[in-house]
Hints:
- This protein has helices spanning 17-26, 41-48, 63-68, 87-92, 105-120, 123-133, 159-170, 184-190, 197-203, 223-227, 246-255, 295-314; strands at 2-5, 31-34, 53-56, 74-77, 96-99, 151-155, 174-178, 193-194, 206-209, 234-237, 260-263, 284-286.
- Helix 1 packs parallel to helix 12 (295-314) and helix 5 packs across helix 7.
- Helix 4 links the parallel strand 4 and strand 5.
- It has two domains: 2-103 and 294-323, NAD(P)-binding Rossmann-like Domain (Rossmann fold, 3-Layer(aba) Sandwich), CATH 3.40.50.720; 105-286, Rossmann fold (3-Layer(aba) Sandwich), CATH 3.40.50.
- The protein has twelve helices and twelve strands.
- The chain is of the alpha/beta class.
- The strands form two sheets. A seven-stranded parallel sheet has the order 8-7-6-9-10-11-12, sandwiched between helices. A five-stranded parallel sheet has the order 2-1-3-4-5.
- The model has no long low-confidence stretch (mean pLDDT 95).
Amino acid sequence: MKIVISDHENVLQKDLSVTVQKIKEILPESEIEVVPFSADKEKFYEGIQKAEGLITAFLPVDTELFRRAPKLRCVSINAVGYSNVDVEEAKKHGITVCHVGEYCTQEVAEHTIALMCALNRNLKHYGYQMEKEGKWQYASIPGGKPLADQTVAVFGFGNIGKRVAKLAKGLGMQVIVVSQYLAEEEEKQYGVRKVTVQEAFETADIITNHRSLTKETYHFFDETAFGQMKKSPLFINVGRGGSVEETALVKALDTGLIRGAGLDVLEEEDPDMKTHPLLHRDNVILTPHSAFYSEESLKRLQMISGENIAYVLKGENWKVQENIV
């Protein structure tokens, strides 16, 4: 039984020993191969031709992949979301798709708050000023307001959105939430207020996105959305890059519709970091999809994704039932 671990070369983890160990504990006779995905797609397809299992986070799992991997029985996504998977096509081919339910809530929430604090205190601006211009001057930019005097709109109220709300409340912020699933009792429990998209755009000083990527949320933050943001807010995205239309975001920054952006994800998972239009801005902080990353979260991620694929291929689906799409 062959299992392939693959992803874009820039995000493929160097040490996969935890994943391999977990698979071997459940399927000791399995053959495990790491096949990096590069510009040479034929080499990748050749590597998965005989695979019964595939572990990936970001590769497009589509009709072409299913056609080129006729023995495939399971795809284990080593991430929370699975927007890169054509689920309906997988069902047609009898392929089980499973993903990781939760493993990095605290890390992503902390990353969100870190971006929020750094942008609000103009840390990137001061760093540029000192390193590029040799200036030591605090009043080179308006001082702004402390976070405790600001309202943050949290889009999406799953595990991460809830944790962000709790941390923001701890900083004294007012928290409003855009989520169709937010129940009245949760509003009281977390001390938040449910609002419409329009009210969030009109009243938020900071907007942070934690929604999964669907047809409805793809390019949700577009030129129209940024145009409705009345208070020139900070914009944070640690959800999915596809939720944001990047040309609209660039325009919003250039015209002052938003005062800064903190982004852990971009539309492309392997973006060109030499020419990207969001680079070299003192009010934009980019991180390389690293919000999830800690020693503990990486270990949990590898362990769960390895267990998932091994249990499915062994025919013990009930052990990963809550993570099967």
